[in-house]
Amino acid sequence: MSSVFTKIIEGELPGRFVWSDDQCAGFLSIAPLAQGHVLVVPKEEIDSWLDLPDELAAHLMTVCKTVGQAIDEIFSPRRVGLMIQGFEVPHAHLHVWPTNTIEEFDFDRVDKDPDPEVMEETARKVRAALVAAGHEANVPE
């Protein structure tokens, strides 16, 4: 059975994409820690990040850094958080989000009902920042 992330990547479930290439996709989390919370997910279904081939793991980190720079430009947080925890979906994924305190790393604080209009605007802003930084080939419309 396909993971929820595979279903999003394949278009079976909706997603607010900000990045796509042949190895991975980036889309907004439906339960964000903060506005701008992006999940970077390999297209290949691999349960644990420890099982990622080295080249794919390195690519995911590069994409996280690129997306993180866009998030930093848009939100100007104290830091851009990066976390791999993987309990909720058995498909490796990296969380990238704007953060100002260590308390904002707590998944008990997610927004379980984010405003869809705010989510659409956030995705638009992240895509625009990525295009402005020269990554238009990887920014889906």
Record the SSE blueprint.
Elements: H1 4-9, E1 17-20, E2 24-28, E3 38-42, H2 54-75, E4 79-83, E5 94-99, H3 116-132
Antiparallel strand pairs: 1-2, 2-3, 3-5, 4-5
Helix pairs in contact: 2-3
Domain HIT: 4-107
Motif (Histidine triad motif): 91-95
Pfam family, one: HIT
In summary, what is this structure?
With 141 residues, this protein is an alpha+beta fold. It has helices spanning 4-9, 54-75, 116-132, and strands spanning 17-20, 24-28, 38-42, 79-83, 94-99. InterPro entries: Histidine_triad_HIT, HIT-like, HIT-like_sf.
Task: Please describe what this structure looks like.
The chain has 3 helices and 5 strands. By secondary structure, the chain is of the alpha+beta class. It has one domain: HIT-like (HIT family, subunit A). It holds the Pfam family HIT. This is HIT family protein. InterPro entries: Histidine_triad_HIT (IPR001310), HIT-like (IPR011146), HIT-like_sf (IPR036265).
Features:
five-stranded antiparallel sheet; 5 strands; 18% strand; 32% helix; 141 residues; single chain; alpha+beta; HIT family, subunit A
Q: Beta-sheet strand percentage?
A: 15-25%
- Give the quaternary arrangement of the chains: single chain
The gyration radius over C-alpha positions equals: 14 Å
Number of helices: 3
DSSP strand count:
5
What is the CATH class name?
Alpha Beta
Averaging pLDDT over every residue, what do you get?
A: 96
According to CATH, what is the topology?
HIT family, subunit A
Shape: globular
- What's the number of domains? 1
Q: What characterizes the major β-sheet?
A: 5 strands, antiparallel
Q: Uncertain runs with pLDDT below 50, 5 residues or more?
A: none
Helix content: 25-40%
From the helix content, strand content and strand pairing, which structural class follows?
alpha+beta
What is the architecture at the second tier of CATH?
2-Layer Sandwich
Helix and strand sequence: HEEEHEEH
Strand order, sheet with most strands: 1-2-3-5-4
Distance between the termini: 28 Å
* CATH homology-level superfamily: HIT-like
